[in-house]
UniProtKB/TrEMBL annotation, chain A:
Pfam families according to UniProt: BPD_transp_2 (PF02653)
Matching PANTHER family: ABC TRANSPORTER PERMEASE PROTEIN (PTHR43370:SF2), SUGAR ABC TRANSPORTER INTEGRAL MEMBRANE PROTEIN-RELATED (PTHR43370)
Matching CDD domains: TM_PBP1_transp_TpRbsC_like
Transmembrane segments: 6-25, 37-58, 64-84, 96-114, 145-163, 183-209, 221-238, 245-267, 273-290
Keyword Acyltransferase: no
Top-level taxon: Bacteria
Cellular component GO terms held in the UniProt record: plasma membrane
InterPro entries from the UniProt entry: ABC_transp_permease
Subcellular location: Cell membrane
Protein name, as recorded: ABC transporter permease
One function term, GO molecular function aspect: transmembrane transporter activity
Membrane topology: Multi-pass membrane protein
Major location category of this protein: membrane
UniProtKB/TrEMBL annotation, chain B:
Membrane topology, from the record: Peripheral membrane protein
Pfam families on file: ABC_tran (PF00005)
Compartments where located: Cell membrane
Any single GO CC term annotated in Swiss-Prot or TrEMBL for this entry: plasma membrane
This protein's record includes keyword Transmembrane helix: no
GO terms of molecular function: ATP binding; ATP hydrolysis activity
Entries under CDD domains matching the protein: ABC_Carb_Monos_I, ABC_Carb_Monos_II
Organism superkingdom: Bacteria
Domain ABC transporter: 6-237, 253-498
Protein name per its UniProtKB record: ABC transporter ATP-binding protein
Annotated keywords: ATP-binding, Cell membrane, Membrane, Nucleotide-binding, Repeat, Sugar transport, Translocase, Transport
Origin organism lineage: Bacteria, Pseudomonadati, Pseudomonadota, Alphaproteobacteria, Rhodobacterales
Amino acid sequence: MIIGGIDIITLISMLMVASTPVLLAATGELVAEKSGVLNLGVEGMMITGAVAGFATAVSTGSPVLGFVGGALAGAAMAMLFAILTQVFLSNQTATGLALTLFGLGLSALIGKPFEGVRPPATGKVPFGPLSDIPVLGRILFSHDWVVYLSLLLVAVTWAFLKFTRAGLILRAVGENHDAAHALGYRVIAVRCAALAFGGALAGLGGAYLSLIRVPQWTEGMTAGAGWIALAIVVFASWRPERALIGAYLFGGITALQLQLQAAGYAIPVHLLSMAPYVLTIVVLVLLSVVHRRGVQAAPAALGRSFHAAS
Amino acid sequence: MTEILLKIDGLTKAYPGVVANDHVGFSVAPGEVHALLGENGAGKSTLVKMIYGLVKPDSGTMEFLGRPYTPAEPRAARAAGVAMVFQHFSLFEALNVAENVALGMENPPPMRDLAKRIREISQAYGLPLDPARLVGDLSAGERQRVEIVRCLLQDPKLLIMDEPTSVLTPQEVEILFRTLRKLSSEGTAILYISHKLEEIRTICDGATILRGGKVVGSCIPREKSARELAEMMVGGEFAATERVSRPFGAPMLEVKGLSLAPLSQFGPSLKDISLSIAAGEILGIGGVAGNGQEELLATLSGERPSAPGTVWMKGADISALGPNPRRALGLMSAPEERLGHAAVPNMSLTDNTLLTGTIRMPLVKNGFLNMAEAKAFAEDIIREFDVRTPGPWVAARALSGGNLQKFVIGREVLQKPEVLIVNQPTWGVDAAAAAAIRRALLRLAEKGAALIVISQDLDELMEIADRFCALNEGRISAPRPTEGLTIDEIGLMLGGAHGMEVPA
Ligand SMILES: Nc1ncnc2c1ncn2[C@@H]1O[C@H](COP(=O)(O)OP(=O)(O)OP(=O)(O)O)[C@@H](O)[C@H]1O
Ligand SMILES: [Mg+2]
C-alpha cells in the first residue's frame, strides 16, 4: 500500500518502534506525577539509561542485561532526585532541571569509549505464522519484545491506578498529602517508590533508543524525547490511555517525516524535523481544551513538598 | 462502671512557643460519651491526635483496655479499635465517596461490596450517601457524612469526633446523636469535642475541661448549665450578646433576579434570587450548606461574575466588578472555608492580611508592600479579636481552627466595611469567642453597615439577625422579621431543606 511515495504499512510498523522510548518515559513520569511529584529530570534519566544500557549490553553481550542496566541506572537517578526533594525538601523544579543537566553530562563522560561501537542486536519476537498475516502481521507481529512490554506496562499502569488499593493510595497521596498522612499513609515512601518506577521506565526508554531504535551511542541522543514525555503526561490529563495516544502520535509523525525526507519531498528538512514536536503538542493541547475537565485532572498536590507537621 | 477503656496520664506535647498539652490525664469507660471542653487553642485536637497516633507525645502514658498503648501511627490506632473524625476534613476531592472510605479502612472489601455496605450503613444510620459521587462535588455536611460513615464501617471501640456537628443541620445532628446513642449502648466509647454546649449537655456522660493545655476540671455536663460550662472553660465570666434596636438607613445592597448556573454536574445553582438590605440591618440566611450558600457569597463578593443588573450597591450596578473594586466600594466578605479560601495555609498571618487588606488599608505604597503596616494590622486583629497565637509571623495553618476563624472575620470587620457578607462566622469557634464575634458583627451594624450572615446555626441567626430568610436549593424565601418568629415557622420556611435525599 503506497500513497504519495510512502509505504503506509512500513510507516505504521515504524511508528510503534519510534514511539516506544517516549511511551515508556511518559508512563513512568505519569505514575510519579500521580503521586504528587513533578520530576523534570526525565530527559536526564533517559540519557543515563541510554548510556548505561548501551555499556552493559556491549560489555556483557546481552541486550536483555542492557535493558536491565538501563532501567537500574534510570531508577538510581530518580532515587537521587527522591533523596533531594523528599528527604531534604529541595525545590522539585530546580532539582529536576539539575538532574537533566547532570544526566546529560554524566552520560557524555561514560559514553566516550562507546562511540562508534555497535551493540548486540535484539531479535524480533518469533510469532511464527502470525507474522505472515498480510498487513496485520507486519504491523502487529514484527517487533522486538520491548515494544510489547511497553504496551503491557501501559495497560498494567492503567489497571493499577484504577483498580488496585496500592494505586488508590498512590492517587490519594498525590491528591492531598496532608489527609493521606492523617490517615496514616507514608507519603514519602509512596512518592519514593513512584519516583523509582518512573526513573526505571525512563531508563528503559533511553536504553531502547541506544540499543534498538538508533542503534548506537551518540552524545545527547535523546534529543528532547524526555521533554516530550513530560508534555504528553500533562496534555494526556494524567491518563495512561491518552498518554499512549500522545506517544504514538509523536512516533507516527517522526516516522512520517523520516519517510517524507527519504521520498525526496521538497520540504525543508528543518521543518520536517520540527514537525513531531510541534504537532504532538498542538494536538494534545487541543485535546485538553476539548476535555475541559482535563485542566482539573492534575493531582492537586503536584509539585508540593510534604513535611509532616509534628 | 469501674471498667476503663482508655486511661491517659501525664500526657505532654509542646510546640515551638506553646505547650499544647501539659500533663493531661483522664479516663474513658466503655460505652461512655466523654466530652473534651476548652476554648479555641486549649489543646483538644492535639490531645486526640496523640490518641490516634498522629502526633507523638513528648512524655506521658496511655493505656487502652488495660494494656500500655503507644500507637506509632494511625494504622496502629485503627488496629487497636480507635477511629477518628477530623476537625478539618481528611478527604480527597478528586476521589469518589467509596474510594475515600476505602482509604480510611484497614482491610476494605472489594469496591463493589464496599459501595453496597456504604449504602446500607449510611441508610441504616440515616446519613444517605451515594458511593459513586466525587467528594469534590459534595457539600460540607455531606463530606462530614463520608467521614462518619468511614468510621462506622470499622466497628470502633473508641470513636473520636473532633467537632463533628459544626457543619450539620439540626436534623442531621439529631440523627447523629441517635447514631451515637446506639453505638454507646453497644459499648463503643465516644470522645466528643464540640463548642456547642447544649449538645454536650444532651449527649455526654462526662466531661474533661482543658484550659491552656492543662486539665482544669471535670464535671457531669447534664448537671451544669451551658453558661456554667462556658465559664469553667474560660475561667471567668464573659459578656453575652446584647442587641439594641437601631434605625435602618437607605438600602445598601440589592440583588435583583440573580441566577447562576452550577459549576459542576452536581453543584448547586442559584435561581432568581432577589433581596435588599438596608444600612444598619443584619439579614440572616439559614438553610443547609450546599444549597447555594457558597455560590451566593461568591457572586456577592465578586468572585464569580453574574449577569448585568443583578447586584446593586448604593444604587450602582456592580455586577461586573471583581472582588477588589467591590472592596474599594466597601463591600467585604468572609467565606466559609477558612483554610484555602479565606486564608492561605502556608502564609504567615501578616501575609494573609495582604490578601484582602490592600484596598482599604494603607498596606501598599507605590506598588510596594508595606510590611510594617501589614504586621501592625495583623497585630491589631490578633489583639481585638483575641486570636490565640504566638505572633503574626505564625503560618495560618498552625492556628487552631477557631482562632483562624476569629482572625479571618477580624480581618474583614476591622477594615470598616459598609456591606459585610459572612458565611458560617462562628464555625468551630468556642462559646466565648463566638459571642465576641457576634458582638463585633452587631457593633458593625450599629455603626451603619449592612450585614448578610449566612449560617446553619439558627440560634445564632435568631440572636443577631433582624430579618431571616431561608436558602433552599438555590431559591430564597421571602425575608421575615426575626422578632416573634417561631421554630415551627422557620421549619416551614426551610421547607424541604433537610437535605436527606441522595440526588439520583
Ligand atoms: N503543628 C503545629 N505547630 C505549631 N503549633 C501548633 C500546631 N498544632 C497546634 N499548635 C498549637 O497548639 C495549641 C493547641 O492547638 P489545638 O489545635 O490542639 O487546639 P484546639 O483545642 O483543638 O482548638 P480549636 O477549638 O480551635 O480547634 C494552639 O496554640 C496551636 O496554635
Ligand atoms: Mg481543634
